[in-house]
Amino acid sequence: MTVKPGVDWGENVPIPAGALELASDADVAAAIGRGETRALLVRGGDLFRTVGAPLALSSVVRLSIDAVRVTADGVDATAVGHVVARRPGRFGWWRGPIVCVMNVEHIGRSDVAPRAHPNDGRFDLVSVAARMSVRSRWQAWRRLATGTHVPHPDIATRRGRQESFTFDRPLGLWVDGVRRGTVRSLTVSVVPDAAVIHV
Fold first, then answer.
1. CATH number assigned to the domain comprising residue 120
2. pLDDT in tens, 17-61
């Protein structure tokens, strides 16, 4: 059941015997996608960072998490952290539109979606208008670490369960930090309580 305001999320349990240790969001998503039956022990990635990057000694927290179903030009994938569409290349963050579908707060050290929660039955959509200037992007980038880049007139945020996008020109696609080529048509939808993890 997705988390409710004012209700504790997760429970402390002993470290499961034979747990599969996973070091990245992409590893967690792959394990969920293949129906892994071992307990999932998350030890890295943006999902791990969002839940506080706990250091387990003898016990861990058992949590339910949502996932994001991704359909990109007819090809399906699963994400547990984030889905990003932007111009390809090193300077893709600095020009053109950016779409970030966030199941977690972070992309690396950047607190992209400060209100995102991995088990609330919704994703947070953060989109940057193509018209946003390089100077404004630089100013927003400097505030990303603290999540204070929003509100901004060229950065739209909203929450949702399903969303579809059609891009005028192909954008690069990253699913949980892994490059997935380019995309023109993108649909994302939340899968509530998709898996149980241990952190």
1. 2.60.200.40
2. 999 999 999 999 999 999 999 999 999 999 999 998 877 677 899
Please state the pTM of the whole predicted model: 0.91
DSSP states of 19-81:
PEEE-SHHHHHHHHHTT--S-EEE-SSHHHHHTT----SSEEEEEEEEEEEEEETTEEEEESS
The values of phi and psi at residue 32, to 5°, are -65, -45
Structure tokens at 54: 């706990």
Each residue's pLDDT tens digit, 157-168: 999 999 999 999
Instruction: Return the ∠ at Cα 40 (arms to 194 and 114), rounded to 5°.
Output: 60
Count other Cβ atoms within 10 Å, centred on residue 194: 20
Per the structure, how many domains does the chain have?
2
DSSP strand pairing (123-128 vs 98-102): antiparallel
Half-sphere exposure of 150 (CA within 13 A, CB side): 17
Residue (of 125, 108, 106, 124) closest to 116 by Cα position:
124
User: Is there a single domain that holds both residue 58 and residue 108?
Assistant: no
The backbone torsions φ and ψ at residue 48, rounded to the nearest 5 degrees and listed phi first, read: -60, -45
Place of tokens 């193509």: 130
Do 106 and 157 reside in the same domain of the chain? yes
